[in-house]
Specification:
This protein is mainly alpha-helical. The chain has three domains: 3-72, no CATH class; 95-173 and 267-288, Cytochrome Bc1 Complex, Chain D, domain 2 (Orthogonal Bundle), CATH 1.10.760.10; 176-266, Cytochrome c-like domain (Cytochrome Bc1 Complex, Chain D, domain 2, Orthogonal Bundle), CATH 1.10.760.10. The chain has eleven helices and four strands; from the N terminus they run αββααααααβαααβα. A two-stranded antiparallel ribbon has the order 1-2. A two-stranded antiparallel sheet has the order 3-4. Strand 1 (36-41) and strand 2 (44-47) form a beta hairpin. Helix 8 (187-200) crosses helix 10 (251-260). The chain is elongated and about 110 Å long. The protein binds heme C (2 copies). One heme C binds next to helix 6, helix 7, strand 3, strand 4 and helix 11.
């Protein structure tokens, strides 16, 4: 806030308060006790009675409270108030208090290996709340995933499902890149590759195309998806044989992945969450497909 606007607010506020006070004091006694003010409207006359004592005191009380508030808390332009209270400061105090309160618990959980931690219901209750605040918007509150966002409950992993791999995924993030093949393969090769994927995942398929696709697959796709299409966690390349799809089983989605490629990102959370929270989340995700 510039000095000008700060002064503007201070002057407006103080002048308004003083004006209010003046009106109040100027009207606290009647000038014509028992008579009327002379105002008549539709035959109704206005008596000139003094303000009721209780009302006057209440009003004065609120004004004193208001003035005191503006001295103590920020409200007058840039003046911070003598208590130096800020919303950010108050938030930080609350966070610090909560952290102090939960520190022993976090320390205890941090010392428990993931493979045991996921069986402790109190720890998982805490983890579920952290998941709800940080992960559910993409993976769903039940961690069941959505189009392009992996299901974390099915024990089918793009990047590996042991504790270390899950922790790395959450902490450092992952980027899954699938090349676009539209410009490299001709139409028949694309159709063949799709038919072959339908075959190895147990869907209905055109056998003749699939036979052609097998060759395409071993030339172009095997490097990442593995010799039999079982996937490769080094690249986050999905298993294409299990009929579990990141983007849906329909031909239209398989075709889209093959022709225009895919570029998908799990954001790194080490910049957002403490080590202890990531440890709890690792155990939570680890347990989702094991509990
Ligand atoms: C902005 C969306 C987004 C948020 C937020 C997010 N994720 Fe993800 N996550 C993804 C995407 C997208 C992928 C898939 C990456 C890929 O395709 O390689 C993924 C992948 C993963 C994987 C790997 C799954 C596998 O099969 O290997 C795990 C584990 C995971 N996320 C856990 C979490 C946890 C825990 C949180 C909360 C701290 C979280 N994610 C927050 C989008 C998100
Ligand atoms: C450079 C490595 C790489 C190569 C080569 C590659 N892929 Fe992929 N593919 C990936 C990755 C990584 C993903 C996951 C993308 C994501 O995380 O969204 C993927 C995803 C897919 C999907 C979507 C799977 C799903 O669950 O929805 C299909 C289908 C697919 N690839 C088919 C192919 C075919 C067919 C070829 C060969 C023509 C091929 N891929 C070659 C890395 C590769």
């Amino acid at each position: 806030m510039s000095n000008f606007w700060s002064a503007w607010i201070i002057i407006l506020t103080v002048v308004t308060l003083l004006l209010n006070l003046w009106i109040l004091l100027a009207n606290r006694k009647s000038t014509n006790a028992g008579g009327t003010t002379g105002h008549i409207h539709d035959g109704i006359e206005e008596y000139d009675n003094p303000l009721p004592q209780w009302w006057l005191i209440l009003f004065l009380g609120t004004m004193i409270f208001g003035a005191g508030y503006l001295v103590a808390f920020p409200g007058l332009g840039k003046f911070p108030g003598i208590l130096n209270w800020t919303t950010v400061g108050s938030y930080e105090t609350q966070i610090a208090k909560a952290e102090e309160q939960y520190a022993p618990l976090y320390a205890q959980y941090a010392a428990t290996p993931v493979e045991q931690l996921y069986r402790i219901p109190e720890a998982m209750k805490m983890a579920q709340r952290i998941f709800g605040n940080n992960c559910a918007q993409c993976h769903g509150s039940d961690a069941g995933g959505a189009f392009g966002f992996p299901n974390l409950t099915d024990d089918d992993w793009l990047w590996g499902g042991d504790a270390h791999q899950i922790r790395t995924t959450i902490s450092q993030g992952r980027t899954g890149v699938m090349t676009a093949w539209g410009g490299i393969l001709n139409t028949e090769q694309v159709d063949g590759a799709i038919a072959y994927l339908q075959q190895i995942s147990g869907q209905n398929h055109d056998q003749q195309l699939a036979d052609l696709g097998e060759g395409v697959f071993s030339t172009y796709c095997m490097v990442c998806h593995g010799a039999t299409g079982e996937g490769n966690i080094l690249f986050g390349a999905p298993n294409l044989t299990d009929d579990i799809w990141l983007y849906g089983p329909d031909e239209v989605w398989i075709r889209q992945a093959v022709v225009v490629g895919r570029n998908n990102q799990m954001p790194a959370h080490n910049v957002l969450l403490s080590e202890d929270k990531i440890h709890l989340l690792t155990a939570y995700v680890y347990g989702l497909s094991r509990n």
